[in-house]
Amino acid sequence: MLDRRDFVGNAEMEQTAPVDTTDVVIVGSGFGALATAKKLGKAGVPFVLISDTTEHLFQPLLYQVATGILSAAEIAPPTRSILAKYDSADVRLGRVVDVRPETREVDYVADGAVRTIGYKSLVAATGARQSYFGNDHFAKVTFALKTVDDAENLRRQILRCFEQADTTLDADRRKELLSFVVVGAGPTGVELAGQIRELAQRYVDQAFHRIDADDVSVKLIEGADKVLPPFGGKLSEYSKNALEKNGVEVVLDTFVTDIDDHGVTVKSKTDGEKHITAETVIWSAGVQANDFAGVLAERTGCATDRAGRLLVNPDLTVGGFADVFAIGDMTNLDNLPGQSPVAMQEGRFVAKTILGKIQRGTAFEYFDKGSMAIVNRFRAITKVRSIELTGIIAWLTWLAVHVYYVVGFRNRAVTILSWFESFLGHQRPHFHMQQDETPLHLRSQEDESRPEAA
């Protein structure tokens, strides 16, 4: 359970602003939250959207920020700008830390103070975060890909490895710097593994004259017996073959048992346990609900699954409260996939319920428009019911669908231009970094030479 004191650092907190009210409080700024907000905005219903970030993140394209294809600005426009055209919209930066469903009140922290807002309906859409399956210490030695900061940190790490490998005279160190391990062969893991190899072949091989593409090692580790397990069959097999043709070493039926500063320890039925040396380990093996799901579960009596996701009612209400809804990755309803189309459809459904266009208690039904995943340049997979596509047709379909959901004409235009430069040319328009002003070893010496404070 979250404690409000954890967020303001004061054991004796006082409410510093009078309680205000609105018709609907929306928590989050992802696909589900925005779908709800737009529907309510069009109807002129007053709502307050509270999020701990100022942007709406198009998470499926985060890997392209991490590999220098796109900048964060193209995939994370300000939420305020998106909702500015709705007079009934009120967007606030803050973190929701508590809810009292009996009195219909939400507490959120903003500018160091706890504020309270009353509502008629509450919509929770706070998404999910990385799960390490009980090994939370893995977070300190791996890179994740859930936020803009994650993507930019990973991009700097990848570029740092190439830059240092280009200048080091130590062969063993060079090999370690050019070794990448991706844990988890879901869409994010497959996309990242494929793009790091694309970087090596189409950018690094030309831009770094002392690095050959074959020097770059990318291993994709998966505990299941196939990549992209939800697709299965020939689509999973196609993806595996496409990755291997591109130079990715796919390691299946293998589990990570430990991770340290120098790589991962893995265990399989056939090869036993071994250590894989790598400078960069990227974790994309699982997700769990964000903290607010736990708050809602405790306050409403709603059950959760092993990942902390709310086991919502068929009409997307939470526990026994008809005016509290939860949608998207923080929920589990009929094992629907944690994908943006599900969240958007749920968001629109909840908005229609609040507006009275759908009768209260009506069960949500998901219309599956299909699934898709990109493997690497010119290779992707698409599944729409019984129709399965692979190769360049699936790749073009993937590009078209994703550029459609990029917010704003300018962002779409820049995205398309960046794709031309990266996929048809050999450029990575956003693959850059700035070296620290003082090298790490010199900074440590400076710290040692400073006199201790009296």
Summarize the structure.
This is NADH:ubiquinone reductase (non-electrogenic). It comes from Rhodococcus rhodnii LMG 5362. By secondary structure, the protein is an alpha/beta fold.
Describe, in plain words, how this protein is organized in 3D.
It is an enzyme of class 1 (oxidoreductase). With 454 residues, the protein is α/β, with parallel strands linked by helices. The chain folds into two domains: 178 residues, FAD/NAD(P)-binding domain (3-Layer(bba) Sandwich); 150 residues, FAD/NAD(P)-binding domain.
Features:
454 residues, alpha/beta, FAD/NAD(P)-binding domain, 2 domains, six-stranded mixed β-sheet, four-stranded mixed β-sheet, 14 helices, 35% helix, disordered C terminus, flavoprotein, transmembrane, FAD/NAD-binding_dom, NADH dehydrogenase (quinone) (non-electrogenic) activity
